[in-house]
Amino acid sequence: xxNSVLSPVYATRHMxxxxxxHNAGKYLRNWTLSLLVVAGALLISTVAIAKAAxxxxxxxAAKLSPAVVNISTSQVVKRDGETKQQRPQxxxxxxxxxxxxxxxxRQQQRNTPNRRATSLGSGFIIDPSGLVVTNNHVIEGxxxxxxxxxxxxxLKAELVGxxxxxxxxxxxxxxxxxxxxxxxxxxxxxxxxxxxVAIGNPFGLGGTVxxxxxxARARNINAGPYDDFIQSDASINKGNSGGPMFNMDGxxxxxxxxxxxxxxxxxxxxxxxxxNLAKPIIAQLTKFGRARRGWLGVRIQTVTDELADSLGLDKxxxxxxxxxxxxxxxxxxxxxxxxxxLSFDGKPIVEMRNLPRIVAETEVxxxxxxxxxxxxxxxxxxxxxxxxxxxxxxxxxxxxxxxKGDGKSATILGLTMAPVSDELRRQFKLGKTVxxxxxxxxxNDSPASEKHIRAGxxxxxxGPEQKPVSSPAQVLSKVESxxxxxxxxxxxxxxxxxxxxxxxxxxxxxxx
Length: 512
What we know:
The protein has 512 residues and is α+β, with helices and mostly antiparallel strands. It has helices at residues 2-16, 22-49, 58-64, 97-111, 136-139, 275-288, 305-311, 329-332, 354-361, 422-427, 447-450, 472-484, and strands spanning 68-77, 115-127, 131-134, 144-148, 154-156, 158-163, 168-172, 195-200, 208-219, 229-232, 244-246, 252-259, 270-274, 294-295, 298-302, 319-324, 340-344, 347-348, 367-374, 377-384, 386-387, 410-412, 415-419, 437-442, 458-462, 467-468, 489-496, 499-506. It starts with a helix and ends in a 6-residue tail after the last strand.
């Protein structure tokens, strides 16, 4: 745009210097006209780029507020002896012992009545039949849930379904009158800098409207495995949880869920669940009463620059498979430990944290293509997704190595190693099925200590080909071969306490 605007000015000036006399006035007028055209174009362009803030949010607020509700919950809390009094110490066999026991038992029952706790939050109606969306943490543990409309009508709510991992819940209310509702928009189209409006019930004050802009996208605040929050500076406080975030078209693009606040009040950093992440979960909660997420059955870790170099990848990307769940979809599709998942169902995995969300959003039972990086080349596999096993820990894959140790200990890269023996199993509290090479000591300021490897860990596999090892001699051989090949680092699969992870240890300047 810059060149196309400025070039007419330059061209007009150049032509005017090659003519004289009676033509000078003609070209001067043309030059002046060109400047006016350019100035107008620049003005229009500036207005288009720097769109003015809305003069008022009043019309938008009046239209949307009736569909935003207050959520009131209550539950019975047992005090469990908070006011318990200390009994006097009496000699054994004292005639007063039984008397005091009965007296304090009766006193305790009178002093510890159950109490009813209440809490307030926000929500919004998404269907005229009475479906209400809110946060799971707003209604968690509640015995009774009520939805309060803008006109103070109080309706008893039924819990349809909830999901703790995404912090979403669906309620249903019944009303004799037609209920107002709002629709979801496409949160992927929202951009940093776009205006947003939040409506909710902060501190139990009732319907409150605040406005701001989107400050950031795809925020990870370690709230759960599927973090992808929209950050905004619209004022969000306690009680706003579960309320909607609207775009300027009046569409819900987010569900206000959390704030960052050292003081407890709004400091301009609020987080909302994106609509595109929430919509499939809401549909599942409405239909099944619970979320039905896709499940691949792998334990993954981030691909660092060092790991990428060790694996022969052009750059750090994808998700590195550290474990495969026995009997899971990944094992059935021949995904192996050491594979780097580059794309899933046609969607690239730029960062490790992208994979859990993409898999979870994929329909259970769907057959997908998975591109993995294996031993220096790209391999395409076919996988059929299972359903995520709620509250069930994945079973770690066991090594298939049948080799025996040679009985010799060794030290290299700061690692003092020994074959696993019955005595060492007892000393380091290892399970009977643990196989590999035991790390008995880690030297300070060594490549191993830099990677936070600790004594008691097990070396299961080494190198890009990830062959199992069972003796220190095999580890020494692998390291020396890697050094002769002039590799900068070597890939280790380390297990500790049942958890496995890949570590790339530097080979240069190593203290052996």
